[in-house]
């Protein structure tokens, strides 16, 4: 767990020690590569020993969790991670019975290459991971939206401009082609509107840029903690 | 009944009236009714499944002074409204335009979510063209090739455009087209001599267009055809019995006239032509075309199974002949209704919501909750040591919550039956229950205090000021042997009373007893028992007959009837005084599930 930010309090003259009240139990991840334009809000958590790379203009909301405990994590440019979203392998507790044990086994086993992709989670540009979603996937393509409460199992490969609907569960090692929409219980279809009309894609990207701008103005940036 | 324990269901008497009175004569009806009264209520019989309801589902008719279940109420619609735009649609418009919203509300054909109007304008301001898009599954009218010029009046724009942007003719245009085509047909038929063989057949005529008429066109043609037929049949004199008028309710006379052959009517009958059916596509006839089937098969081969519609999507569409997903049309939202409920026998209004669409309140709301005492049951774990003075509720030892799914056979278990009175008068309650529960598993039930009073549902302050009740010392209920005394209530409050029920759950399987043991508990000696129990036979359900008596003020009957209809003996008090009333009903209390030994 990362350190709780100390509440700003006037220094009490009676204090004899200058140690922080609550010290962090785990060391800060040794290798975080941050672009200076990234916005990391307060209480965001980045944990793990493998490298974490965050692309320019990304936004991490408060209480979002990125874990590179088992494998490196790469976030592309313009990625938005909402509150309580979890990105990284081993984050999906409770969804799989042995997830905790398996993540321990993973780290002990060392590197394990799956297919040609290797371990790790890669989010493409302008990916949005909404509240309470869990992304353990291997790769999420550009412009995709992972909606509230969704779960992407490990090894998943999601194409570009996909929409994983709210509370949809994608099993491990699933491959979703570009422009797929998952909705309902187990239904999927191809979003032909986005496919056929590039202007709809452009409008979506423009809206995304406006959102990034709005967050930049609303959220205080706590990036200093991680650099 | 898959409910969490414990539960209480109330029985409505409605099933008696519909079945017995219809078939039997009056004398038999009385005998049957008397029989019903004496018979205990069997919650296991298949019929009782339809007459048991939780108290919250029941309404109460004040005139009949009886509970009314959802089956014995009549519903009437008050108004129609669209759930998306909340626009109230007058019923006359519903009769003519149908039961769907005719403004801008559409549901997605794929996922049935409400659709929003989006602009495809890339310059930022929301100008035309517009599309309907589903925010959930991302289907939009782009996929069927439809775009709108205005953002309002979508349903009229949609009616004019077919998928792919083709133009749909309006009603007037269609009529004109039909007339024109009919005239062409007539002229062609006259021009062709009957005897001369003709090489050209209408289908190869190049003048005609080869486009198959659409579903809506065929329907419009058929409607126009029947209308013209009926006009041709309407006789000049509507009351004449010889001619046949199809649009009047004298159809019976029509059929009679057809089959009665008296000579005097023959000359009149020659006048009219028989009512014929449609003969061509222009009149609405659909001829099966195997070429269309072959084309559909080719298309599936080409585009794959994914391009066809799922059954639920297909059935939701208006046109039943659609197969492929580029033929989908947005679904207009179905209108919802606000309804009022009436008692089936006396037509008294039991529940009437406010006409305003956005308000959820009710003008009239006669609930059984406000007229019938609520019965509930819970387990009473008896751990009281008589030596200790513990006047309070059973010791709240948090060791183990009572397991309602594991009642032990043969061991007396105590339950607390709690009655709360919603009326403003104190009531006297009499409870009765058969000594053994009906069904395969026979459990012994004993209500330790079958008759008691429950206080009125007065204000809390009135009660506090005028209370004369002494708090109950519960240890006095338990005698030295540790058994609860019979004949005394367990606890009482302002408007509630609780009594103890002792239950000895029966045995699930016949226990082989040695000959000497005489055991009165449980029907364990059932012989020839067929192997296993059916599902839910091990649920302990206690039928309880509740009779409440109270005195209420006589309500001045506005309809001028002097007789008040009571459930039993109702004595009329003199002029405005109190009136003795009695209400009785069966309830089924689900106490728990008996665990197998």
From TrEMBL, chain A:
Which keywords does the record carry?
A: Cytoplasm, Cytoskeleton
- Where does this polypeptide localize? Cytoplasm, Cytoskeleton
Classify the main location: cytoplasm
Recorded GO cellular component terms are: dynactin complex
**GO molecular-function term, one example from the UniProt record:** dynein complex binding
Q: Per the record, which residues fall in region Disordered?
A: 1-30, 92-115
Please name the PANTHER family in this protein's record.
DYNACTIN 6, DYNACTIN SUBUNIT 6
Composition bias of kind Basic and acidic residues appears in: 97-115
Gene3D superfamilies linked:
Hexapeptide repeat proteins
Source organism: Lentithecium fluviatile CBS 122367
Q: State what this protein does.
A: Part of the dynactin complex that activates the molecular motor dynein for ultra-processive transport along microtubules.
- Which taxonomic lineage does the organism of this UniProt entry have? Eukaryota, Fungi, Dikarya, Ascomycota, Pezizomycotina
- Similarity field: Belongs to the dynactin subunits 5/6 family. Dynactin subunit 6 subfamily.
- Identify this protein by name: Dynactin subunit 6
- Keyword Cytoplasm assigned to the entry: answer is yes
**Which superkingdom is the protein from?**
Eukaryota
Q: Which GO annotations describe the biological process of this protein? A: mitotic spindle organization
TrEMBL record, chain B:
Q: Where is the composition biased (Basic and acidic residues)?
A: 170-192
Annotated localization: Cytoplasm, Cytoskeleton, Microtubule organizing center, Centrosome; Cytoplasm, Cytoskeleton, Stress fiber; Cytoplasm, Myofibril
Give a GO cellular-component term: dynactin complex
The UniProt keywords, alphabetically, are: Acetylation, Coiled coil, Cytoplasm, Cytoskeleton, Isopeptide bond, Phosphoprotein, Ubl conjugation
Tell me where on the tree of life, at the top rank, the source sits: Eukaryota
Q: Using the UniProt annotation, give all residue ranges assigned to the region (Disordered).
A: 159-212
* Database matches in InterPro entries: DCTN4 (IPR008603)
The UniProt family comment states: Belongs to the dynactin subunit 4 family.
Q: How does it assemble?
A: Subunit of dynactin, a multiprotein complex part of a tripartite complex with dynein and a adapter, such as BICDL1, BICD2 or HOOK3. The dynactin complex is built around ACTR1A/ACTB filament and consists of an actin-related filament composed of a shoulder domain, a pointed end and a barbed end. Its length is defined by its flexible shoulder domain. The soulder is composed of 2 DCTN1 subunits, 4 DCTN2 and 2 DCTN3. The 4 DCNT2 (via N-terminus) bind the ACTR1A filament and act as molecular rulers to determine the length. The pointed end is important for binding dynein-dynactin cargo adapters.
Q: What is this protein's record name?
A: Dynactin subunit 4
């Amino acid at each position: 767990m990362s350190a709780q930010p100390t509440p700003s309090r006037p220094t009490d003259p009676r204090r004899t020690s200058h140690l922080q009240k609550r010290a962090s139990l785990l060391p800060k991840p040794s290798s975080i590569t941050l672009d200076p334009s990234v916005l990391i809000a307060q209480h965001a958590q980045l944990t793990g020993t493998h490298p974490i790379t965050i692309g320019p203009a990304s936004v991490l909301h408060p209480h979002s969790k990125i874990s590179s405990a088992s494998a490196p994590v790469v976030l592309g440019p313009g990625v938005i991670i909402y509150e309580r979203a979890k990105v990284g392998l081993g984050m999906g507790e409770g969804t799989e019975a042995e997830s905790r044990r398996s993540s321990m086994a993973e780290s002990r086993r060392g590197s394990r290459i799956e297919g040609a992709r290797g371990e790790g989670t890669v989010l493409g540009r302008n990916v949005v991971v909404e509240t309470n979603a869990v992304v353990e996937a291997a790769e999420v393509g550009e412009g995709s939206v992972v909606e509230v409460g969704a779960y992407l199992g490990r090894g998943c490969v999601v194409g570009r401009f996909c929409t994983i609907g709210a509370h949809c569960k994608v099993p491990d090692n699933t491959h979703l082609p570009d422009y797929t929409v998952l909705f309902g219980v187990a239904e999927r279809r191809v979003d032909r509107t986005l496919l056929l009309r590039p202007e709809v894609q452009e409008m979506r990207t423009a809206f995304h840029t406006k959102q990034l701008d709005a967050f930049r103005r609303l959220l205080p940036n706590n990036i200093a903690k991680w650099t | 009944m898959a409910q969490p324990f414990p539960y209480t269901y109330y029985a409505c008497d409605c099933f008696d009236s519909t079945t017995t009175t219809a078939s039997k004569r009056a004398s038999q009806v009385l005998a049957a009714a008397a029989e019903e009264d004496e018979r205990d209520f069997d919650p296991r019989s298949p019929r009782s499944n339809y007459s048991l309801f939780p108290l919250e589902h029941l309404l109460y008719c004040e005139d009949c002074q009886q509970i009314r279940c959802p089956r014995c109420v009549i519903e009437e619609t008050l108004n129609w409204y669209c759930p998306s735009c909340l626009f109230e649609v007058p019923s006359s418009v519903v009769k003519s335009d149908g039961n769907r919203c005719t403004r801008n509300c559409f549901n997605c054909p794929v996922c049935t979510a409400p659709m929003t109007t989006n602009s495809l304008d890339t310059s930022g301001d929301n100008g035309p063209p517009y599309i309907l898009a589903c925010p959930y599954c991302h289907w939009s009218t782009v996929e069927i090739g439809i775009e709108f010029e205005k953002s309002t009046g979508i349903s009229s724009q949609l009616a004019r455009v077919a998928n792919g942007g083709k133009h749909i003719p309006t009603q007037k245009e269609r009529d004109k087209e039909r007339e024109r085509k009919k005239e062409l047909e007539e002229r062609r038929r006259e021009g062709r001599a009957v005897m001369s063989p003709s090489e050209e057949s209408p289908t190869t005529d190049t003048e005609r267009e080869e486009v198959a008429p659409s579903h809506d066109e065929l329907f419009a043609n058929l409607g126009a055809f029947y209308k013209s037929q009926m006009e041709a049949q309407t006789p000049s004199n509507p009351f004449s019995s010889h001619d046949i008028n199809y649009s009047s309710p004298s159809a019976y006379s029509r059929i009679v006239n057809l089959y009665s052959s008296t000579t005097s009517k023959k000359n009149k009958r020659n006048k009219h032509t028989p009512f014929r059916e449609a003969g061509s596509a222009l009149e609405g006839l659909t001829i099966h075309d195997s070429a269309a089937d072959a084309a559909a098969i080719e298309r599936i081969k080409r585009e794959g199974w994914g391009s066809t519609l799922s059954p639920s999507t297909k059935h939701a569409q208006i046109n039943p002949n659609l197969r492929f997903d580029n033929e989908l049309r947005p679904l207009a939202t179905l209108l919802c209704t606000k309804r009022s409920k009436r008692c089936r026998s006396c037509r008294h209004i039991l529940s009437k919501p406010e006409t305003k669409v956005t308000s959820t309140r009710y003008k009239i709301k006669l609930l059984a909750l406000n007229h019938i005492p609520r019965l509930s049951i819970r387990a009473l774990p008896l751990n009281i040591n008589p030596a200790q003075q513990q006047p309070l509720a059973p010791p709240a030892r948090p060791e183990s919550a009572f397991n309602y799914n594991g009642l032990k056979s043969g061991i007396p278990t105590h339950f607390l039956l709690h009655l709360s009175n919603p009326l403003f008068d104190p009531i006297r309650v009499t409870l009765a229950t058969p000594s053994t529960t009906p069904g395969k598993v026979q459990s012994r039930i004993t209500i330790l205090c079958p008759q008691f009073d429950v206080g009125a549902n007065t204000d809390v302050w009135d009660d506090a000021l005028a209370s004369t009740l002494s708090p109950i010392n519960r240890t006095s209920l338990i005698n030295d042997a540790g058994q609860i005394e019979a004949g005394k209530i367990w606890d009482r409050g302002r408007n509630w009373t609780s009594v103890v029920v002792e239950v000895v759950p029966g045995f699930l399987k016949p226990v082989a007893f040695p000959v000497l043991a005489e055991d009165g508990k449980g029907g364990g000696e059932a012989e020839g028992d067929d192997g296993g129990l059916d599902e839910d036979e091990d649920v302990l359900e206690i039928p309880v007959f509740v009779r409440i008596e109270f005195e209420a003020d006589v309500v001045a009957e506005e309809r001028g009837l002097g007789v008040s209809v009571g459930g039993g003996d109702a004595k009329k008090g003199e002029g405005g005084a109190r009136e003795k009333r009695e209400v009785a009903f069966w309830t089924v209390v689900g106490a728990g599930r008996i665990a197998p030994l």
